[in-house]
Design brief:
The structure holds two protein chains of two kinds. Chain A is about 0% helix and about 50% strand. By secondary structure, chain A is mostly beta strands. The radius of gyration of chain A is 14 Å and the shape is globular. Helix content of chain B is about 0%, strand content about 45%.
Chain lengths: ~110, ~120
């Protein structure tokens, strides 16, 4: 079945460092890909999404590109802030899946001063 | 615009007891989802409603879990009897139509359940 694999955390970075969180997927057909973020004590929020190959999603300085050839959707940010500390989830939906989100296990990011 | 509301935020019960969670989706959203998030794992869909009807409940443990969405708005998820392995965060989400696989889902803050 369809699945998402994320790099394990926690990832600890200093403020202004470059961030990459790896995400790869297995899916039949052409899924849509999402990054959700969960700040401490809050619900999941959509960070960005991409719906077809080579699409780039971006929001709040974060970017991810839908790479069909490598089945990847890595999350990047050029300069992280303490306020970016959260858990990041990669997820997909697929045609015929009724809009069901399939999530990875999440990657915790800690940004320190 | 108000977001997805859930209550209670926290619940502690003993095994074999029953518990119920409530969700109020964003106004006008036709589709409502319940996810279970066990510590250290990503959320897993339990049940999806489109208006009053069930679209997908393939991963709902139907011997102990039940859910309803009366009048196509609010929803209640019940567990009876609870087991230790039901300890998790229960997330409710909604989306506008639920018919497109590119559609954004909006999540509530979740209900954290601890079964002792």
């Amino acid at each position: 079945g369809d699945s998402v694999t994320q790099m394990e955390g926690p990832v600890t970075l200093s403020e202004e460092a470059f961030l990459t969180i790896n995400c790869t997927y297995t899916a039949t057909g052409y899924p849509s890909l999402f990054w959700y973020v969960q700040y401490p004590g809050e619900g999941l929020q959509l960070l960005l999404k991409a719906t077809k190959a080579d699409d780039k999603g971006s929001n709040k300085g974060f970017e991810a590109t839908y790479r069909k050839e490598t089945t990847s959707f890595h999350l990047e940010k050029g300069s992280v802030q303490v306020s970016d500390s959260a858990v990041y989830f990669c997820a997909l939906t697929f045609t015929g899946g009724g809009n069901k989100l399939t999530f990875g296990t999440g990657t915790q990011l800690k940004v320190e001063l | 615009e108000a977001g997805v509301a859930q209550s209670p935020r926290y619940k502690i019960i003993e095994k074999r007891q029953s518990v119920a969670f409530w969700c109020n989706p964003i106004s006008g959203h036709a589709t409502l989802y319940w996810y279970q998030q066990i510590l250290g794992q990503g959320p897993k869909l339990l049940i999806q409603f489109q208006n009053n009807g069930v679209v997908d409940d393939s991963q709902l443990p139907k011997d102990r879990f039940s859910a309803e969405r009366l009048k196509g708005v609010d929803s209640t998820l019940k567990i009876q009897p609870a087991k230790l392995e039901d300890s998790a965060v229960y997330l409710c989400a909604s989306s506008l139509t639920g018919t497109g696989y590119q559609e954004t889902q909006y999540f509530g803050p979740g209900t954290r359940l601890l079964v002792l």
